Amino acid sequence: MCRQSATVCLTKSPTAAQRGVKGVAERLAVLRDPRDRRGRRHSLASVLLTACCAVLAGARSYLAVGQWARHAPLDALARLGVRATGPLGVRRAPSSSTIRRLLTLVCPGGLADLLGCDPTGSRHLAMDGKTARGSRTDTGPAAHLLSAVLEGGRTVSQLRVPDKTTEVTGFTKLLSPFDLTGVVVTADALHTHRDHARWLVEAKRAHYLLVVKRNQPTLHNALRSLPWKEVTARRYDREAGHGRRETRSVRTLTVTSLGLDFPHVAQAAKIHRHRTDLKTGKITRETVYAITDLTARAASPQAIGQLARAMGHRGRAPRKRHHVRRGRLEDPHRPRTGEHGHPAQLRDQHPTHRWAPQHRRRPARALLHALHPPTGPDRTALTSNTT
Fold it and tell me: Where would I find the beta strands (DSSP E) of 193-319?
């Protein structure tokens, strides 16, 4: 979605756009403004709406967001809530530094609670934690967020994990306000705790599907020792995409009478993934164990495979490691003899190749101007009167 298309959406259908922006602005007005009362030039809702529109137009950085706001038409800024200043009533959008500072101060959990959706009646709810990129400051570490996501990527809510703690402390706090009756909650091995499973089943009347890894060696060894070769309930899925061919096999086994030390556990699953890189031909294999309180009638191997796949635990191919040959460095002032192929010379006389930087702190100017051109088709400045 380009800048022109985002502008057309705000100009061609003013009734629908004003209705949508007004509804979101009313929700954002409930948030507490973390700034001081003195020196405020822009309201909290106008800054957040400007950032949202810039991201929808294709901006991927704070610099691109500021450039979109700087070149936005005056009528679009008026609908976003940017106030008019001066005797001529000119509307000036917030700068990129203002947007960056305000977005880092606003609590992300509050935004998710206002704009999130209700998980009541849903089938699946995934718990996942991510570190917010670019949130690290000089005085504090990067913000780590724990999110609850429904099918299709719809966010229910999220909260920031306190520093020097883990995601385990925010599991029950994040899901407490919602009705999870009949919802299957999936989580990775970090949240495979007996207290979490007991709380989901007894207090929230929900179900769970938890991954078991080597961080719990007793439970992991008990799952590995199960008679998986004799299991007849299996499911095979094959697909090709993203440059690889993948085959997945899911085996489920009822463990209610096997004395597995975990509350309310009914089934155990063994998921084996076999991947082949179509470009290099490299083959990788991965085996994952999972436990659930769903019975064999409530969840077949196919359903458990779909829940595990929606959880996002697809694994990652091992990265290629570049080995550097280490040895004694050559003295640049030592004269080379004829056996080296050329007479004695200093290494400083032949400068090495200058490598291009691999990472850019700012996006390329060509990309910024492609997303947000400063002039229109007739090489004139974009204003509210131009189309």
Answer: 207-212, 234-241, 244-254, 267-277, 283-292
Q: How do residues 55-66 score in pLDDT, each as one tens digit?
A: 888 887 788 888
In a 3-state reduction of DSSP, which class is residue 235? strand
Q: How far apart are CA 34 and CA 362, in angstroms?
A: 27
Are 77 and 91 in contact by the 8 Å Cβ rule? The answer is: yes
* Residue (of 92, 93, 57, 47) closest to 370 by Cα position: 57
Question: Cα separation of 248 and 236, whole Å?
Answer: 6
Is residue 304 a contact partner of residue 208, using CB atoms and an 8 Å limit?
no
Question: Starting from the edge strand earliest in sequence, which strands make up the sheet with 155-160, in order?
Answer: 155-160, 144-150, 124-131, 184-187, 207-212, 283-292, 267-277, 244-254, 234-241
SS3 335: coil
- Contact between residue 11 and residue 63 where contact means Cβ atoms under 8 Å apart: no
pLDDT in tens, 17-76: 555 556 677 777 777 787 888 878 888 888 888 888 888 888 877 888 888 988 888 888
The Cα 372–Cα 327 span in angstroms is 50
CB 363 within 8 A of CB 96: no
Helices (H), 119-262: 171-175, 194-198, 217-224
H-run or E-run covering 125: strand 124-131
- DSSP per residue, 50-78: HHHHHHHTT--SHHHHHHHHHTS-HHHHH
Considering the entire predicted model, what is its pTM? Answer: 0.62
